[in-house]
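Think of the structure tokens as a kind of shorthand, similar to the way a musician reads notation: each symbol stands for something richer, in this case the local conformation of the backbone. In the example below we present two proteins back to back. Begin with the first one, reading the sequence and then the tokens, and try to describe in your own words what changes along the chain.
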Amino acid sequence: MTLDTTRALPIVRTINDLRSQVFSWRRAGDRVGFVPTMGALHAGHLSLVEMAKARANRIVVSLFVNPAQFAPNEDFERYPRNEAGDLEKLSRQAYCDLVYLPAVKEMYPDGFSTAVRVAGVSEGLESAARPHFFGGVATVVTKLLMQVQPDIAIFGEKDYQQLLVIKRLVKDLDLPVEIVGGATLREHDGLAMSSRNAYL
């Protein structure tokens, strides 16, 4: 297995390398936690990593901007990306044991044709304006959970409808992972911390 390192923080970019590392942890009896993100990390994300570390021995953080949850007229190309800055924040924090940085082709190879849809909790609210959104989220989260195979995964409560969608898909698909919500962190003026705040 090949591991890239930035400031001593291990990075994997393929499913095979990811699974090889997680398997070695499991063989040693470690409990694995997972925090999926789209990068552009802020204190809210880091608080989720800290939550995961309190519940597991080894922590995987993914950085992947998921094209499947963006409509053609949305901000996929402009979405904030700062890989070097994200890795520096994670390495300073010391709670992260492995960063998963897959390319789009790794997540959605040529010929990919499967979609996960969660009825009921996906309707209304966010999906009223973005009907494609939760299908893209449900599909990528299902893939990530199956790739990492964590014991526990932490998702922010800021996107509460998304959290409910993920809890439902995990229950319905019998995925052996505990889903935990992390409290929303806010800026000094009360605005919820968000990667898109970089636009402001």
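Once you have a description of the first chain, move to the second and do the same.
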Amino acid sequence: MAMTPRATVTLRFYEELNDFLTPQRRRRDIERPIFLAPAVKDVIEAEGVPHTEVDLILVNGESVGFGHRLAAGDRVAVYPVFEGLDISPLQRLRPRPLREPRFVVDVHLGTLARRLRLLGFDCAYASHRDDGEIVAIGRREGRIVLTRDVGLLKQGGVTHGYWLRSRDPEGQVAEVMGRFDLAGAARPFTRCMVCNGLLERVGCSAAAGHVPPHILERFTSFLHCPDCGRFYWEGSHHAALARWTRRVLDGAATEPPAS
């Protein structure tokens, strides 16, 4: 009995999408068997690339959406977000950038969350949330999901997300700042590092009874978080944090703040 040739498609991933592939599959044609007529999104994610990282798919040279059904012999080219090239005539797959950069960070990235808050970015974080809660918050509040869990970004409810390549909090801060071009949007010391609340400047009378007496004698101005009640002042620790924020905004974060 003659054997039926197996149905395959050929995929090619470009630029930083190769970060998700094994070394043997990077920057080369990948032949992948298919069964029936799978959606191109499912085939792409089966290779390990989450849909949130993809901005353009060409099948046999034609722009298609995630729901496009593949057939035997199709050639699939997959591209990441384009920064300098206008692809508006094609079927752009990622939602338009959010007007205001707001994040929800997964449970393993608490240090990153605190440092983004220090820089003034709205960053939702709690150590007890499961993946479903993170996806729901991102969708409901229009937040970008930040994670090192590729599987989290593959969930259909995620519309905006980014997979952090670095394992180091310093590298992660630099990645987020660069990926979303945030230097001009930073507003250091405007958010509470602990709860994400917006800080307000208050005088000694508001801080009396909430800070040590010797601190009250030395400072005339404080930052207060109305959400959690914490007070901050410009002591030696503030100076170290200020040096760090300057280095981050200069693109060379080398001195991490105490966490």
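Compare your description with these statements about the second chain. Residues 102-192 form one domain.
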